[in-house]
């Protein structure tokens, strides 16, 4: 059986053998059975064999950030109604937590447990019960993403301020050089750009971050000019940094003023 199979009534289909997993042909209401997602017996603990497939699901959801899905847990009818409802919810939560840890925007994921209320096979047989124990991925709508806001890092007295930024995917970061000397901004060994500057003019270098991840940078000459950009699929709050323009000198008391506001996304 292929990893991703259209559930009854759905129109999505698994990719051909050897082809990557895709959700582009799916629409709201389509539901997919994730047959390669398995848990320990009577547990919400994912089996290691499930993780490589969930990594594929995570990759597809990150490449389609406006798709919102329900992660639905289902059980057979062994044990009580309440027990199976709790087990199915916990399994749906477990799958969600794994996808979020793999970089999926949590706003894309709605976990829901159905217990044994939606069987797709006869619970009177072992084969039927095995089919009923499943996780489904249902497309439930479109997620509206807020546009990323530009932000700045100020370099003064040979230090980057702030030294660490947490921003959503799509953010453009601008480095503003207030030192009286130029700096070469280097990302993990790959040269970015030299910020040439005349004294006190605040020349800039900008870079847009379109992929989630952690990006460390430094000046290739001045080791104290360094920092980190953490790029996430989404953030709960947004920190914008602004700074007064100094009219003739930089000092150790130089400050970068920050404003924190809620961020929808």
From TrEMBL:
Annotated source species: Zhongshania guokunii
Compartments where located: Cell outer membrane
Matches recorded under InterPro entries: Bact_OuterMem_StrucFunc, BlueCu_1, Cupredoxin, OMP_bac, OmpA-like, OmpA-like_sf
Keyword Transport: no
All residue ranges annotated as the OmpA-like domain in the record: 26-143
Coiled coil: none
Main location: membrane
Highest taxon in the source lineage: Bacteria
Lineage summary: Bacteria, Pseudomonadati, Pseudomonadota, Gammaproteobacteria, Cellvibrionales
Alphabetized UniProt keyword annotations: Cell outer membrane, Copper, Membrane, Metal-binding
SUPFAM superfamilies: Cupredoxins, OmpA-like
Identification of the protein by name: OmpA family protein
């Amino acid at each position: 059986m292929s990893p991703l199979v259209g559930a009854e009534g759905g129109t999505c289909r698994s990719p051909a053998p050897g082809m990557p997993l895709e959700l582009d042909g799916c629409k709201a209401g389509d539901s997919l059975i994730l047959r390669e997602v398995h848990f320990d017996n009577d547990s919400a603990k994912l089996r290691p064999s499930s993780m490589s497939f969930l990594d594929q699901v995570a990759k597809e959801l990150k490449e389609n950030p406006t798709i919102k899905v329900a992660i639905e847990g289902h059980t057979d009818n062994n044990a009580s109604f309440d027990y199976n409802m709790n087990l199915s919810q916990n399994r749906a939560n477990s799958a969600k937590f794994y996808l979020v840890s793999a970089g999926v925007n949590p706003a894309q994921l709605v976990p829901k447990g159905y217990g044994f209320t939606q069987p797709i096979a006869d619970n009177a047989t072992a084969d039927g019960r095995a089919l009923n124990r499943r996780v489904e991925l249902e497309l439930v709508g479109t997620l509206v993403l807020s546009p990323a806001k530009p932000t700045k890092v100020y370099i003064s007295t040979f230090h980057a301020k702030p030294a660490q930024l947490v921003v959503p995917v799509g953010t453009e970061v601008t480095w503003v050089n207030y030192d009286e000397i130029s700096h070469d901004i280097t990302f993990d060994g790959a040269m970015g750009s030299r910020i040439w500057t005349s004294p006190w003019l605040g020349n800039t270098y900008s870079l847009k971050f379109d992929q989630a991840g952690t990006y460390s940078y430094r000046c290739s000459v001045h080791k104290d000019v360094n920092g980190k950009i953490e790029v996430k699929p989404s953030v709960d709050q947004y920190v914008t940094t602004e700074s007064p323009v100094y009219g003739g000198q930089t000092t150790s008391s130089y400050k970068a003023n920050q404003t924190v506001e809620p961020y929808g996304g």
